[in-house]
Amino acid sequence: MTVSWIDGLIVVAYLLLTVFIGFWLSNRASKNIEAYFLGGNKIKWYFLGLSNASGMFDISGTMWTVSILFVYGLKSAWIPWLWPVWNQVFVMVFLAVWMRRSNVMTGAEWILTRFSGRGGKMSHIIVIVFAVVSTIGFMAYFFEGIGKFASGILPWDMAADFYLFSLTSAQSYALIIIGATTLYTMKGGMYSVVAADVFQFLIMTTACIIIGYIAYTSVTSEQIAASVPEGWKTLWFGWELNLDWSNVLPSVNEKIESDGYQMFGALVMMMIFKGIFASLAGPVPSYDMQRILSTKKPSDAAKMSGFTMLILMTPRYLMIAGLVVLSLVYLRPVLAGMGEGVDFEVILPLAINEFLPVGLRGLLLAGLVAAFMGTFAAFVNSAPAYIVNDLIKKYIKPDAAPKFYVRMSYLASFVLVVIGISFGFVAGSLNMLTLWLTSSLYGGYAAANVLKWIWWRFNGYGYFWGMLAGLIASSTKLLFFGPVLDIYFFPVILAFSFLGCFLGTLLTPPDDEEVLMSFYSNVKPWGFWKPIHDKVVARDPSFKGNKDLGRDAFNVVVGIVWQMCLVVAPIYFVIKEFQSLYIALAVFAVCTVILKFTWYDNLKNIDKEASYVVHGDEN
Predict the structure, then answer these.
(1) CB 365 within 8 A of CB 352
(2) Model confidence, pTM
(3) pLDDT, tens only, 9-40
(4) Which member of 161, 306, 360, 380 has the greatest number of CB atoms within 10 A?
(5) Which domains are delineated in the chain?
(6) Calpha distance 318→205 (Å, rounded)
């Protein structure tokens, strides 16, 4: 990519500004670890929502989304259900409220409000390991990814030779950007993460609107129709994909074949199956959970999650659709010239280089680099909380001064970044290990974290052995069944994890009733809690259990449709499919009205806190 010095200076100016923000906010963040990791629960929910949305504007995700929209057209809107993207709807509707009612700092500390005794401590430790190890794995990937991206877009050769070692240009860029990110995050904690994210989101949204406008005014509907195969503009699908690029760009058919998405109907069914369990499990102990725990009150946590989706989807997909449309019409000869095995993720940098003028290109690149920084900073802020709050404060030095824990937070952040960078330097040889760390840990998460919400008898031993069984099953898949799509192996992993959960639970005694009663009366989940419910009512006859399962399930379905409209509407706009656009907007409006009455209006009733909370380690 050819980038002018003006564009390069815009990127450098942004890096310097973020470091300044971190130092400017350092006094506010260094009061104690609550201020450092959670912003003292004083940050407005809409700023946290902007921050959360900013973290989802990541470079690799944007490149991937551009490539799948190019290849699969409107049907690509279903593919993010692999994760699933609508886990945020579950969080918005009820899970954010359940988590925030705990009044804790980390996901590991949250576990001790649910489980007790030795099993609770085992669960506590495995969550800490999950959070720290997965963070190191992601840092290694971030190091490699941001280095390649930055060295490809910035105009300066940063390769350097030292006495004992040498650095490539990509490695030097990665160290500079990660160093700046770590510095402002360490100094300003959650305050600087949110402040930088809000600024970055404004940059990205401005760039997205401009790119959408350029594409809309530069390409006609006839040009688009001539550049795509039949069915590309259709959202709906049958059992098979039935998308043939032979007469337009034959190499795309090879991409579809290698992805394994031809049986699209079966794929969507499996995504829904996995999505329900993965979404009900709740956020993993990472930056998304950290922002939920940073809100002032439970209703703010729900608002923050909904706001994240509302402000993220439309501008992001406006940019993605704009870059794809410009590439379809004007870059097809370039892609065709690459022959077989085209890397469709190069569409993003190609389109930026080809279609954006000087200045705007620098603005977008600064936004994309900032998106990386926002995601990386969120990990740098969240993972040390598990080391400082859940290890040092809990087991090593529980009565130290607040400033001591803040200094330990600086040290933990620095050490984790150094370890992550060390993995990144050898990412080529450790690719399999890093993939194992991330894929296996996440693969074993769903079953245990669903049961923790809905079944009173589920205990800490069941949680530990369920997570471990899922990890072993995921690792087995990775090592011996690599070519099989992960989504099709998910039922096997889930079954093994459930087996570990049930055996670990039923072969050991129940958790302490005081802890269970505290958790149930404070969090107020629905599910199989009758024995505990009866004991809580016996103690407090005024207590009312959660009977909102039906309403929550209805709101989840409406929320998924609402979210899907936010994704497809900007795509329909850019490709000038106005009839479909009007339908999407009408459905969005109807869903918004429904959610206003069935979800939003009920938030004012959910902020009542329990009178007592018992932690499992105290019994």
Answers:
(1) yes
(2) 0.86
(3) 887 887 777 777 666 765 665 555 666 666 67
(4) 380
(5) 5-441 (1.20.1730.10)
(6) 9
